[in-house]
Amino acid sequence: xxxxxxxxxxxxxxxxxxxxxxxxxxxxxxxxxxxxxxxxxxxxxxxxxxxxxxxxxxxxxxxxxxxxxxxxxxxxxxxxxxxxxxxxxxxxxxxxxxxxxxxxxxxxxxxxxxxxxxx
Length: 119
Fold this sequence. Notes:
Layout: E1 32-33, E2 48-50, E3 57-60, E4 65-66, E5 76-77, E6 82-83, E7 96-97
Antiparallel strand pairs: 1-3, 2-3, 4-5, 6-7
């Protein structure tokens, strides 16, 4: 099989290609593996969500969103009219009302663009 983000090498067909001899896995930008073992599973922390079956890959919530709880399957979006530039936010308090002269017409904005001229 193939391992990780961008790995195109087939592995596991020959001796010494599995187990402790596997190379480090590139999961892509801003992703980590939640530590786990045979006797214990670790949940993704608040401010992130799991992106693989079993919650093995934790990804920080993007700007414009947050997750309050561990083991979240998705991040909540900041409501329309607000924004959050924070990545990995774990509270709705990071969502800030857009300043005068700017707007966020729908949920999930990482910044508030300026209002069009004349509005």
